[in-house]
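Need tokens for this chain, all 613 residues.
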Amino acid sequence: MPSQVLGKVSMTPRGDYNAGTTYYALDIVGYEGGSYLAMKKVTGIEPSNDQTNWMQLSGPGLPGEQGPKGDPGTAAGFGEATATVDDTSGTPSVDVETSGPDTTKVFTFTFSGLKGTKGDTGDKGDTGDTGPTGPQGVSVVTAQIQENGHLVLILSEGGPIDAGDATGPIGPQGIQGEAGESVDSIQRTSGTGAPGTTDTYTMYSTDGSEIGTFTVYNGQNGTGAGDFMADGSVPMTGNLDMNGNRVTEVGTPTADTDAANKAYVDSALEDVTITTDATPTQGSENAVQSGGVYNALSEKQDTLSGTEDQLVGFNSAGEAIAVAKPTYTAADVGAISNPGGGTTGQVLTKTDGGSEWADAPDGLPSGGEEGQVLTKTASGAQWDDVPSDLPSGGTNGQILAKTADGVAWSDAPETGVTTFNGRTGAVTPQSGDYTAEMVGARPSTWTPSAADVGAVPTSRTVNGKSLSENISLTADDVGARSNTWMPTASDVGAVPTTRTINSKPLSSDLTLTAEDVGAGEPAQTASVTLLSTGWSQSGDRYSQTVNCSIVAADTPVVVVDVALSGTDLDADNEALSAWAGPSANNVTQGAGTLTFYSVEAPTVNIPVNVGVG
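Here are the structure tokens for all 613 residues:
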């Protein structure tokens, strides 16, 4: 069974919605806290539950309760803060006037379009209550290809989705193949064309190769060389054995030696009464009992003596006598002598020296019944009953001829073919009798055109360049840019590498420090590890307390973040994923300790960097 391409039949998560991205049927995006399924190809249409472009799968959860207020920090005073950005270099700068106690002061500034070092992590409130479960997602139950070739998706909810044509476009048509060979000539390659012989003819292709052969039988010349002529010009020289078959359409006899047909005999016997009483009766109307028959019967000879192989004859006195059966030769009766030999099924054939037994000619169909005749059909010949609708009349030797009204008896033509290709008399096939047109071929002088072979003429042009020779198209010829063209940052809407941030060029990756942006650095740093086995559950969340010597109960903690190795990407990814729980909750501090919280207990160890002022 041939395979059928169904196309896309599964849902594909595509992340958060982006107005500049093209989405296709069964793509899933996140938008404003919910998730949406694309119903068809869509670009620039914000997700909604319109059931035409998008279907909402789930809505946003309810907001959690606000966390408790954090402990107040050390009082500090500061004056007016002034921030400027250099219009030429794009470098920002900030001036702040401070006052109050001589303590660490931490400021956070936001610059639009710029990215500085990561700011301090603020205290986070407790995790809010879990929002209600969103609606059940939609799944594909079945995918079907309709009669119009479209892929239709049957969903667990909602109406079906027509995903469009499941079959790709038809490829371009291939180039036409080369023209085939045809018959160029027919030549006699065996035989002389003599009457009564068979010649062999060979057909040759236009490429000079031999296609095949066929044979042609040359008929007799009609002058008594052995043919049984339809015009009766050649008399028979032997008995005609019909082998139980009938001789049809026999004319009315006019001479004593003519054959009589059934109609003639029926007419002659029409008034004759046949009786089994042969008693001689003078004056009887029965011809058997009167006249010469009466006299013969009245004087009949009662007995005759003889042997089994003798015949009845009469002597000069008119008396019946037994005589020896005479013997005759074929010459005595004008017949063909019966040669010796032969096998079952062979026929007597006239030869130059007399006659001989030979195999019956090939081509006769099998089957047939006694009295049937050969009939020409579209595929050859077959045995059929003699037609019953032959016209009446006709004379001995006539043949059936086609007329405007049907058929009629007419005299047979005196000769067969009289002219052929300008020759007269007994026509013998020879080279040149058949033209290429007669056998459905093209002459050897024929030259095909580009259109005949499905080719493009040399006068055709491509982008104004003639195909009479090899051409080379340039980028300018097709309205394209050369392969040496290179766009600038401005051409592609990008920022040039000469642009700087805080006096650092963008020619490579940048790392801005607190000093680069005029911010303070932690006074002390340390690293701690949250062990996967160190979490204990308290209520609806887990907690873990670790020792950190640089932390005091009243020390401002300015940096708490996951520590990444930068070399083991798998480990870094696991740590980042596990850090999502603790980082979403506030960290509490004590004398030399930090306590972390998480709704779920992480299953891997998490390295954490800590910095204090």
